[in-house]
Amino acid sequence: MGMLNGKVAIVTGGGSGIGKGIARAFVQEGCNVVIAARTMDRLDVTAKELQSGATDGARVIAMQADVTDEKQVQALFAAVMSQFKRVDILVNNSGVVKGGSVDTLPAATWREVIDVNVTGAFLCLREAFKIMKVQGGGKIINIGSISAQRPRHQSAAYTTSKFAIWGLTNAAALDGREFNIAVSCLHPGNVMVERRSNSRSGAGRDEGPEPMLSTEPIGRVAVLMATMPNDANLLEAIVLPNAQTYLGRG
Questions:
Q1: Residue of 41, 189, 216, 248 with fewest CB within 10 Å of its CB?
Q2: What is the pLDDT of residues 100-134, one digit of tens each?
Q3: What whole-number distance in Å separates Cα of residue 69 and Cα of residue 73?
Q4: What is the pLDDT of residues 170-181, one digit of tens each?
Q5: Is 246 tagged catalytic?
Q6: What gap in Å lies between CA 180 and CA 80, rounded to an integer?
Q7: Residue 179 falls inside a structural domain
């Protein structure tokens, strides 16, 4: 406990699912956490829930922001700086999962997935870089997916977005190296979150019942990434149910 005492983290998509799980793991280690998303109702409920489990005086604050809107992203980071004077950790978790065969996938759906999953991550990462360069370093954790290595059927937009996140991670890690900014990518497998409460595929065709993880192991790995020493970067991690069909496919 207390491995993140005094640190300040922004977790996008922090009102539910993986984002909420990571935010919970951070506050349990004494980290001040700003959870951000487009709608405040769920954020407020989550912030109150997480605050009750915070340690060492950590604070949980909910802030509304659409990560696809450049001005809203800039306002989010400005508000966090006004409140805390620093940003030590960014978790780029906001994302949408929408599927469909490539021959019938609407262009609007493609744009929505890429805008949220890729452009949103870039906009947040860019603002974090500006702050972390000045303060002497920081940690950025991009939430990818095992879809970046093993695509599902009918998931062209989502799979493409997660390949892009892995590319963004590599490029940003290189840009951040001389400034003590470590950029990492955490690839979850099947995680039991609200949009997958029936244990079935969240995108494309129905894959049938599958083994699922809770968000707790994802949070543990995020804490590990966030607490690596300044001269080390846990560049990539894959966390999935041991029984998930991933190895041995095809």
A1: 248
A2: 889 999 999 999 999 999 999 999 999 999 999 99
A3: 6
A4: 999 999 999 999
A5: no
A6: 21
A7: yes
Number of domains in the chain: 1
The DSSP code sequence of 63-104 is EE--TT-HHHHHHHHHHHHHHHS---EEEE-------B-TTT
pTM above 0.90, yes or no: yes
Identify whether 244 is part of a domain.
no
The domain of 25 spans 8-239
Are 35 and 26 in contact by the 8 Å Cβ rule? The answer is: no
User: Which one from 26, 84, 129, 158 is the annotated catalytic residue?
Assistant: 158
- Domain membership of residue 247 (yes or no) is no
**CA max distance for the chain:** 53
- 3-state SS class at 32: strand
Which tokens in the block code for residue 176? 């951040």
Strand partners, 24: none
Backbone dihedral region of 221: left (phi > 0), alpha (psi from -120 to 50 degrees) or beta? alpha
pLDDT at 250: 41
Cβ(144)–Cβ(166) below 8 Å: yes
Partners of 238 in the beta sheet?
187
**Residue 217 maps to a domain:** yes
pLDDT at 208: 64
For residue 200, give the CATH number of its domain. Answer: 3.40.50.720
- Inter-CA distances, 66 with 5, 120, 211, Å: 28, 8, 32
